[in-house]
Amino acid sequence: MSLTQLFEPSGVAVVGASRAEGKIGYVAMANATNFEGPVYPVNPSESGELFGSAFVPSVTDTDGPVDLALCCVPGPAVPDVLAECGDAGTGAAVIYASGFAEAGGEGETLQREIVEVADEHDISLLGPNTSGFLVPATDLRCSFASGVEAIPTGNTAVIAQSGGVAHVLAFQSRRQRRGVSAMVGLGNRANVGFAEAIAYFDGDDRTDAIALHIEGTDDGRRLLDACRASDTPVIAYKAGQSDVGEFAASHTGALTGDHELYTAGFAQYGVPTVDATDDLLDAAAALGTAPLPSGPNVGVVTAQAGPGIIISDRIQRAGGRLPELTAGTKARVDEILPGVTYDDNPVDTGRPMPEFGEVVAAVAEDDLIDIVLVYELFEEALGFPVDTLEGLAEEVDKPVLFATEGIDADLESERDAVEAAGVPTFETPERAADAAGALARYARLHAEEPPGAAAADGGWPRPGGSAAADWKGPRDE
After folding, report:
1. How far apart are CA 139 and CA 30, in angstroms?
2. pLDDT (tens digit, 9 = 90+) per residue, 365-410?
3. Per UniProt, what is one GO molecular function of this protein (predicted)?
4. How far apart are CA 31 and CA 140, in angstroms?
5. Could you give the 3-state DSSP secondary structure of residue 441?
6. Could you tell me if 165 and 282 lie in one domain?
7. Alpha helices in 22-149 (DSSP H)
8. In 3D, which of 203, 266, 211, 200 has the Cα closest to residue 233?
9. Could you tell me the pTM of the whole model?
10. What is the largest CA-CA distance in the chain?
């Protein structure tokens, strides 16, 4: 199945477009009109124009090709709409309506019917029971939520089982000044699921990391295989550590399964997991900043001891290691700053100073360090060591992370300069440390080819094995 018509359409039809401002058909049309290609309002009961485009009675009546249909109609009307889409050569559809497999009984029958129609006409279905998707770079905003036009372009593709969580992550990415390359709410996954979406965004030039939100799946093997086949780093948030199975089943028809089995399966297939939406986006930002780490050893440079202690503790609990610096690096730091507060790892300079960037470079160039994390409270007179950070990650072939705090209006331009230098920034010691921990876990899981041994019946791999056993914490050395 190709998802090109879904995420790269030449034209879009909003089926069930409406003048009534409170209806999905109105909001979906309002959002879709931002798209750079033609957008057609489709409704046999309407006439005239909506947002400058003339109503047509069917997708077969448009004056140009339509690759994507946004179905803003009740569930029972969807099969007929899809049949018309097939006649029009429309290869993708988003189905917003609920009342399908998640409702059981007649809803399951209705979902089987739309899959049969889609298979007959080779139509990719996003949903049903979804709030849609976004591709900000092309202003393709196929959602019925308000405010999505403000979500900026970033380099993380968010693939969420829940459309609500997908939008939560997208709006969080905006507050974090990061944005997304795409945001996708899979819903019931009628014929477009995790495996298909991961494969598509792995080949997307705008995507450098893939963030997954998962409630459950009845085809874990395909999900894991897609993760392992992806050259683009994947990070996952599996919801449901406690018993939410019945609620999840009523939401997207999810089979939640055993949480530990999921996390062990992801570990065996090289995917680190997190337990919060902020952590998911932070880890994706770290993983999406090349280069990827070759090991779990983190070098910390802090201008304040208190945050450095929090970071040091958190990194080790999150799966990273804080190795002792080489004698050569210690001597170099002592030469740069004689009498420095603490010249091992973490290096504590006591406060920001003009030589702070030189200390960062010294730690980054240490052969024992795989990941660099810098913490510095903002001081306007000194600013950030942007000149040092520019190109540093590529020069040492290691990821570099930067955390800070201060008054936004004062530090904004300096922080923007750090991010423009390819260094992701974080607002708290904990978030920075957890992102470094995710990088460390990723390095551990990819240190050797994950075994990926799965049950013969196509189920999840059994927990255990070298990768699954080692993924959570530092090695005993």
Report:
1. 12
2. 999 999 999 999 999 999 999 999 999 999 999 999 999 999 999 9
3. acetate-CoA ligase (ADP-forming) activity
4. 8
5. helix
6. yes
7. 24-32, 78-88, 106-121
8. 211
9. 0.90
10. 80
